[in-house]
Design goal:
The complex is a heterodimer of chains A (340) and B (339).
Chain A lengths: L7 H5 L3 E12 L8 E13 L4 E5 L6 H8 L7 E6 L2 E2 L5 H8 L2 E4 L3 H4 L6 H11 L6 H14 L16 H13 L5 E5 L7 H18 L2 E5 L3 H7 L2 E6 L2 E7 H6 L4 H9 L41 H4 L5 E2 L7 E2 L4 H6 L1
Parallel strand pairs in A: 3-8, 3-9, 6-7, 7-8
Antiparallel strand pairs in A: 1-2, 1-4, 4-5, 9-10, 10-12, 11-12
Chain B lengths: L17 E12 L2 E13 L4 E5 L6 H8 L8 E10 L2 E2 L5 H7 L4 E4 L3 H4 L6 H13 L3 H14 L5 H4 L9 H13 L5 E5 L7 H18 L2 E6 L2 H7 L2 E6 L2 E7 H6 L4 H8 L50 E2 L5 E2 L10
Parallel strand pairs in B: 3-8, 3-9, 6-7, 7-8
Antiparallel strand pairs in B: 1-2, 1-4, 4-5, 9-10, 10-12, 11-12
Helix pairs in contact in B: 4-5, 4-7, 5-7, 7-8
Classes of the chains: A alpha/beta (340), B alpha/beta (339).
């Protein structure tokens, strides 16, 4: 929170930058054969600025959660570079990484699984403060826990409660309090509202927006719910089979999606507005096996625009179609759609 | 490809296929009985698509389980009410006759395609099971029918998939298999409990399209249960909104989405992020949470979260009252009076 509202120049500098980050998992190793590589994340480049939310969308198994964990170095990247506040943390030893850990936090989808069932909410929130030595005395610790719980809308008596005594929405508030207590400047929110009921989702989305407004924290907001992402994200990145296939300002991507996969995703979004029901662009089949990804563009087997030449043989790079639009797409045919 | 709801509401002018009347179901818990359903009534006409929406714990799945008589026993009790299917009273039917209904005339698709399939049986064995039980087909005939059904639900290489195991299929494919199992006996009513919740959006769109397509082709009725209003907008003709064990609004789908009458329906619709709301604006969240079914307030169950609550809401039981436009609302303020 130190750099809060200290000026726009500071705000433009990314909190977190990833350059061609990849994570390959070796699988199926046998005595006679080396492992096959599962490319969970393949050459992902992105950045997030203070006070900004980058939405990361894609279907299950596309590598979005792995990317989130790699950025926090909870999973070690195979290739690429990660910069946190300008410092290269890609190969920083754990010891030196620890002070930075305070500033990067993670909120999980399932608040029940991410809170220790045998720890009171108060203890869970205090844990981070103790580890990072953020409270000098017992009473200061208690005060800080109480103020954080109050900040997320939990009453003071909730500090004595155990996770099972709380509702799902309250548990997610507690999980947010735990992350927020150590005053992070970069938070990976991994499907933070997906397991909640609609009416509770809105409460938690509002809370995350409130917190960002006051702390200027940067969010990487991972979700498969495009409606929520559109609402919270300034920019949006679309992943398919480990690769970022499109990234750009949210309004632009929603108004003028350039990648055929993004168009299919947007079209599949259920809409509550019955008058806007439209002809749907249905994707055929399932995402391909990540262990045997298609050659060339990973989307070409399901793509209506794919041609026999470039799409099947060469992987398109993420490129800006229109200068200064900050809207990048990895598609050989993007120029055709962009002008259409 | 979109299925337009018919102009009239078939619910009121034909004999319903399924009718649930004033159903009260209670679960035994450590803290005493809990009324999961309190006076729920609904009707599904032949070939009609009805949606049931509400938050977790509102009782929507209990409705489905009651109809199929799959409520946990001991543990759950039907205290009052009637469930009639095609003239038969399902609640008093002997178990033997019930088995002829379940899976054959009324079938169900569950939420979790991962856990609803038996991991140690092949796809073929699971799809043909109902056929061999209900129709006494030979193995060969059953396999041919199963392959045909799998092909119909869009499973590639259907014949080969008969020998596949559930873990070899993706989530979307498994849900297609679940649908094939549910439809193999040509049921007159399909109950789908959150059939797309565990799936990705693009797969969800595929499955909804498939369900709607098959429903029309086979002319069966469908009861779709979900927490996602937008899914119902795509699928249902009539929607029932449930809250804390009661139906609070029942309306034709277009009417519900264009002019929700109950404050809860309205709040639910508003809390979905829409294209119209500016990015980063605060969503109109419903304050508080669903009341504990063991200590319900007197009067309207939504009173503590309702923006238009008045004194009269806290005094007596609020009935579900029909309005002229084909809907019923459980609110003392009529749609015209409520702002």
């Amino acid at each position: 929170m130190s750099q809060a509202s200290s000026g726009s120049a500071d705000d433009r500098k990314p909190v977190l930058q990833a350059e061609r980050v990849s994570k390959y998992f070796p699988v199926d190793r046998t005595l006679f054969r080396g492992p096959r590589l599962l490319r969970a994340v393949d050459a992902a480049t992105l950045f997030v600025r203070p006070g900004e939310t980058l939405g990361l969308v894609g279907e299950s198994g596309c590598g979005k959660s792995t990317l989130g964990r790699v950025l926090l170095r909870l999973t070690e990247p195979t290739y690429g570079r990660i910069l946190f506040e300008g410092t290269d943390i890609t190969s920083l030893p754990q010891r030196q990484l620890r002070p930075l850990r305070r500033k990067m936090q993670l909120i999980f989808q399932d608040p029940y699984a991410s809170l220790n069932p045998r720890m009171t909410i108060g203890d869970a929130v205090a844990e981070g403060l103790i580890v990072h030595r953020l409270a000098a005395t017992r009473s200061e610790l208690r005060d800080r826990v109480a103020s954080v719980l109050d900040r997320v809308g939990l009453g003071p008596d909730s500090a004595e409660r155990f996770p099972h005594e709380l509702s799902a929405g309250q548990r997610q508030r507690a999980a947010i309090a735990r992350s927020l207590a150590v005053e992070p400047c970069f938070v990976v929110c991994d499907e933070p509202v997906s397991s909640l009921d609609v009416s509770i989702q809105a409460q938690i989305v509002n809370l995350l927006l409130d917190i960002q407004e006051t702390t200027r924290a940067a969010y990487l907001f991972i979700s498969h719910d495009l409606r929520v992402v559109r609402h919270v994200a300034h920019r949006i990145a679309v992943m398919y089979l480990g690769r970022i296939v499109e990234v750009g300002p949210t309004d632009r991507v929603f108004a003028q999606p350039l990648h055929p996969y993004t168009r299919a995703l947007l079209s599949a979004m259920p809409t509550a507005d019955t008058s806007r029901r439209k002809l749907r662009l249905l994707l055929e089949g399932d995402p391909p096996d990540p262990l045997a990804p298609p050659t060339g563009c990973p989307f070409h087997p399901r793509c209506a625009m794919a041609d026999a030449d470039a799409c099947r043989s060469r992987t398109p790079a993420l490129e800006e179609l229109e200068r200064q639009s900050h809207h990048r797409v990895a598609c050989w045919h993007a120029a055709d759609t962009g002008s259409a | 490809m979109r299925y337009r709801p018919p102009a009239h509401d078939p619910m009121h002018d034909t004999e319903p296929l399924l009718s649930v009347d004033d159903l009260v179901v209670s679960y035994d818990t450590d803290d005493g009985p809990l009324r999961a359903l309190d006076g729920v009534s609904l009707r599904v006409a032949k070939g009609q698509r009805v949606g049931l929406v509400g938050e977790s714990g509102c009782g929507k799945s209990t409705v489905a389980l009651s109809v199929l008589r799959l409520l946990p026993s001991p543990g759950a009790r039907v205290l009052r009410g009637a469930i009639r299917f095609d003239g038969q009273d399902l609640l008093t039917l002997p178990e033997r006759s019930m088995r002829a209904v379940r899976g054959r005339r009324v079938s169900m698709v569950f939420q979790e395609p991962m856990t609803s399939l038996n991991p140690v049986c092949t796809i073929g064995a699971q799809v043909t099971e109902a056929l061999t039980i209900h129709h006494r087909l030979s193995r060969r005939e059953a396999r041919a029918r199963a392959a045909e059904m799998l092909d119909r639900v869009g499973l590639p290489n259907a014949r080969r998939q008969l020998d596949a195991w559930p873990h070899q299929l993706s989530g979307g494919m498994r849900q297609r298999v679940m649908i094939a199992i549910a439809l193999i006996c040509n049921p007159e009513l399909l109950i789908a409990d959150e059939p797309t919740t565990a799936l990705d959006v693009t797969t969800q769109a595929q499955i909804l399209e498939l369900l709607g397509h098959l429903q029309q082709q086979l002319g069966m009725a469908a009861l779709l249960i979900t927490h996602d209003l937008a899914v119902l907008a795509e699928f249902a003709q009539t929607v029932l909104v449930m809250y804390a064990g009661q139906v609070v609004e029942q309306a034709p789908v277009d009417l519900l989405f264009s002019a929700p009458a109950h404050p809860y329906s309205r709040a639910l619709l508003e809390s979905i992020p829409s294209c119209a709301a500016p990015r980063g604006s605060r969503l109109p969240a419903i304050p508080g949470r669903v009341p504990d079914l063991r200590s319900l307030p007197v009067g309207c169950r939504f009173q503590d979260r309702c923006p238009v609550v008045v004194e009269a809401c806290r005094t007596g039981e609020i009935p579900l009252r029909p309005f002229g436009d084909g809907r019923s609302v459980r609110c003392i303020l009529s749609p015209r009076e409520a702002p």
